Amino acid sequence: NTIKISAFSGSLRKESYTTKLIHALQKSAPESISVMRIDIGNLPLINEDLEADLPQAVKDLHNSIKESDAFIFATPEYNRSYSPVIKNAIDWGSRPQGNNLWNEKPAAVIGCSPYSLGGFGAVNHLRQVMMYVNLAPMQQPEFYLSNAADVLQQNGDVNDEETKKHIYEFWSAFEFWIKKIKYAHAES
Ligand code: FNR
Questions:
Q1: Cα(164)–Cα(166) distance, rounded to whole angstroms?
Q2: pTM exceeds cut of 0.95
Q3: A Gene Ontology MF term for this entry (predicted)?
Q4: 86-117 residue pLDDT tens
Q5: Hey, which of 40, 79, 82, 144 would you mutate to test ligand 1's pocket, going by the most ligand atoms within 8 Å of its Cβ?
Q6: ipTM of the complex
Q7: Which domains, from first to last, does the chain contain?
Q8: Which atom belonging to ligand 1 lies closest to the Cα atom of 80?
Q9: Which of 43, 81, 84, 158 is the one with CA 20 to 30 A from 111?
């Protein structure tokens, strides 16, 4: 049985490196894993007034979360933090109060930047929020894609051997992490 992963890109721009990185991860995923990229750009900004009658985009996000075994949060770095697009999706996924859909699900967090720090500040802040909503973020290997413009081709293919190796290692560790948490749930 296939492991279903929902992947979220924190960038809404068409030529986003972060979104291209998700494509690269989709292409290289093990056979036992399917990765669906979920568009979070059409969600309204978080607003408790909307909770009485949830907008369709929020309902769609909720369904995607419920159907997923695990998540990938890929984020650009905005002013040394992560993208508000991701924060908005995490916030909606945790609401209305008492319906935190992220609870105890495994997740991976990835930083992506055209510069040399690879989105470290973004990843560091994002992990903090993931803790609070009780996601289970994989600790290692960490994943920072630096110099994204050099590493990712126009079509999203990776043209750098070290990055390819890192993606391979990422997948084997993440598959193991997801199974470990699934097994723990099944046993308890
Ligand atoms: C940036 N950018 C940026 N880059 C970085 O490495 N560290 C940072 O703190 C910031 N800060 C920042 C703030 C804002 C508001 C914007 C719009 C951009 C540059 C950013 O990394 C670059 O635009 C990337 O190309 C964004 O990722 P995508 O859209 O290519 O996925």
A1: 5
A2: yes
A3: oxidoreductase activity
A4: 999 999 999 999 999 999 999 999 999 999 99
A5: 79
A6: 0.99
A7: 3-187 (3.40.50.360)
A8: 9
A9: 43
